[in-house]
Amino acid sequence: MQSLITAISEHADAASYLAWPGDFDLGRGDHGEAVHLASGAALDGFAGDGAGGTYFFCGDGAEERPVLYADSEGCASLIAIGLPELLRLLLVAPWWRDRRAFIAEKRGELAAQYMEDMPDVAVRRDRAAAALGLDLPTETDVLARLREVATEAGKDFILIFTPEDEPYDPLIKG
């Protein structure tokens, strides 16, 4: 089975959609400050966003490892169990970082803003998903899963700012 990271690199449609509106760049895996997991498990930055946030694989293994996202403002949360789940989130709800996304009426506003700015966003999303061989859940399902992962499984994934031995604040609270 081909790695999804390799698939993103090889498929322009996927890489383009993930770059924008997904704001996900495989070339930005350096977080810029020393961090570690409180558990001592491995932490590997593999992608980032334009605002200085970083996506980390946690623990040992490959693309099936849990994914933690840390923003540049000192907040972090586990957001997916494995790269396929993260990519579904980015494909279906690229606005997930906006905390209002958990409020149903606000989700509609966010989606409408994206559709207004990029009328072809759904077509581009579907091409990217096809290139990566991913089925797409509904927005409601993907955001419910995000909240579940962040607030339940995420309790065991606390990111620590190493120089001060201080934990990051939760990005997504229960």
Summarize the structure.
The chain has helices at residues 4-10, 12-19, 83-92, 104-117, 121-132, 139-151, and strands spanning 35-37, 43-48, 54-58, 66-70, 75-81, 159-161, 166-167, 169-170. It is an alpha+beta fold and 174 residues long.
The radius of gyration is 15 Å
How far do the termini sit from each other?
36 Å
Uncertain stretches of 5 or more adjacent residues: none
- Judged by helices, strands and strand pairing, the structural class is alpha+beta
Strand content: 15-25%
Largest sheet: 5 strands, mixed
Q: Give the strand line-up of the largest sheet.
A: 2-3-4-5-8
User: Helices and strands, in N-to-C order?
Assistant: HHEEEEEHHHHEEE
Query: Residue share in helices?
Result: 25-40%
Total beta strand runs: 8
Number of helix segments? 6
Average pLDDT works out at: 91
Notes on the protein architecture:
The chain is of the alpha+beta class and 174 residues long. The chain has a 5-stranded mixed beta sheet with strand order 2-3-4-5-8. A 3-stranded antiparallel beta sheet has the order 1-6-7, with no helix packed on it. Strand 2 and strand 3 form a beta hairpin.
